[in-house]
Amino acid sequence: MKRSVPKLKTDKDAEDFLDQDLSDLDFGAFKPAGFEFENKAARVNMRMPQSQLDAVKAEAKKRGVPYQRLMRELVQRGLESCVQADHYCSDRVSPIIFWQRLAMKSTSNRTFGS
């Protein structure tokens, strides 16, 4: 019978737990973790319906993540689906690279005084 993963309250508990044989653990309840490595220096201020923000906050609470992180994830998914659906990028670069290139093109096409 598989045993469940205990709640680990301290780093010492986690270290001691990882020093054991873990082959009989039930990892069925585990969820993949996402990591954000890029610096989040840019700020966004936008208006949206209160009901939409409430829905995002409720979903974030259900998932146990901050709502801003969920919003970044949803934006990223939207970018990826746009790139895949519309084939914006024939050389298969990542959606972030595509949007950075698009932003650079739009700023290079500006003229002074506009």
Protein architecture, described:
- The structure is a single chain.
- The chain is mainly alpha-helical.
- It is built from 4 helices and no strands.
- 0% of the residues are buried.
- Mean pLDDT is 78; it is low at 110-114.
Which features characterize this protein?
114 residues, mainly alpha, 4 helices, CopG_antitoxin
**Rg measurement, Å:** 21 Å
Number of strands: 0
- Number of separate helices: 4
The major beta sheet can be summarized as: none
Task: Indicate the mean pLDDT.
Answer: 78
What would you call the structural class?
Answer: mainly alpha
- Through-space gap between termini: 70 Å
User: Order of SSEs, N→C?
Assistant: HHHH
Put the structure in a nutshell:
Pfam families: CopG_antitoxin. With 114 residues, this protein is mostly helical.
Topology:
Layout: H1 11-18, H2 50-63, H3 67-86, H4 95-108
Helix pairs in contact: 2-3, 3-4
